[in-house]
Design a protein that fits this description.
The complex is a heterodimer of chains A (38) and B (477). With 38 residues, chain A is mainly alpha-helical. In chain B, the strands form 7 sheets. In chain B, strands 1, 2, 5, 6, 7, 8, 20 and 21 form an 8-stranded mixed sheet that branches. Chain B has a 4-stranded parallel sheet with strand order 14-11-10-18. A 3-stranded antiparallel sheet of chain B has the order 15-16-17, with no helix packed on it. In chain B, helix 1 packs parallel to helix 9. Chain B is globular and about 65 Å long. Classes of the chains: A mainly alpha (38), B alpha/beta (477).
Chain lengths: 38, 477
Amino acid sequence: MEITNRDRFWMRCRPYQLWRFIVLNLKILKAVDHSKRT
Amino acid sequence: MARVVIVGAGFAGHTAALYLRAQLGKQHEITVVNRYDYFGFVPSWVWVGIGHMAPERTTIALKPVYDRKGIALVVGRVTEVHPDERYVLVSPANRGGPLRLDYDYLLIATGPKLNFAATPGLGPETGHTVSICTLDHAVAARDSYLAQVRRLEQGERLTFVVGTGHPGATCQGAALEYISNIHKDLARRHLRHRAELIYLSNEPALGDFGVGGLHARYRGRLTSSEEFITAIYNDYGIRAEVQKGVRAVDEQRIYWEDYQGHEGETAYDFAMLIPQFTGQPIAYLGADGSDVSAKLVNAAGLVKVDATYGLDYAALREQPGAWPATYQNPSYPNIFAAGIAFAPPGPISVPHITPSGLNITAAPPRTGMISGVIGRVAALNIANLINGDRLAHHERMSEMFAACVASMGDSLWDGEAATIIMYPVVPDHRRYPNGTGRDLFVTHMELGTSGAWMKRLVHETFMYKFKARPGWQIIPE
């Protein structure tokens, strides 16, 4: 695995990263939900 | 009326104090004993350590928060615990005489003793390396780092070594974050070509993080954290040296032993190495003054809780239920431990003994989010006992999720971060028989600017939470 120029483009593409930011937050909320949190 | 004493106001202790206050009526006394009069947001000290964040932005004065919540604060160190007579002795920071605090319930959440002495020459006070483990250390690390930057500006070529300074150290994520931030900072200053960056670690492989590494879907295929972090380091031009246990440091060199038992050395100009973490040096004394520490702590001074101790690695790997659930001491049911202070039943990462007998094993991480969760669980259990209920709160590290956002540059415009979410922290190969022991739907790795935003969001929301502002309980630990 290596980080290509294509990866670098997407890593810094603001609209795409905004989408990923939303996904990351949803992932964390899902993880909180999965966790026992008793 | 019950009296609760909490030793430590870090992620575990401060979280526990806030939850306890929320659970208990004002007739119950809660006292927090902490070495400092502030809470320090440790994850942001990587930014302090390169001069990108003012130290005061990473701290919260405890007294105003506790005054508002009706929690007493004693600034000092607990020197003795008398579990039979139920009191602790505190050496106050204001140099007064020892202070006796009686308790009905005790939560030990001291955080680690930074055991620099275990590695000759390590540490900022008596050694030659810097640290970002306390705020004072992070400020000293910043000053030392900026001095190296000035040398680079004058045309010198320098070697920066960041990693673990003991064969049994933990917190590799902080080291990864620090070296990545140094890379980004030097690149921004157009000095990166004059610096060699070396990551030196006791991990069995890059991306192990003391949790045995992880696998997640990345670009549509199952990718290991080793591949993921290796790709980042290759991109950044950081040389990684893993499977190495640091044995000593002098003014110019770091001396280590590797998995095969070969001894070697790494020259450096600037080194930030994480020390071994042990329990705080507290005396545990019975009613007759005898040492009862064997009932309370292990050889490293970490507090025994409801874990199954004594299992070898293979047995522990098959028994995630051996990890503690309630964080209650089995000998003294009114004593709990949280965060780094509790004794884990063993490593998560694969242990290794070298031919010379050196144990090079990354210790399990119990910092940050994990500490906060355990602090909450312990606090809610103490509240249960005070209210006459049974212990109703259980959360093993094999049932707990953790998110790690390793920033690589703090800029919201062009910074990036590796965001790693893992569930559970301790692999459970029975629940998730997919070869990784983790839920592949939740477990996640990602690199990009979104991570930098995530890291800043975490900083701001956690500072809000730890100030106990309205709605603080909604924010996950």
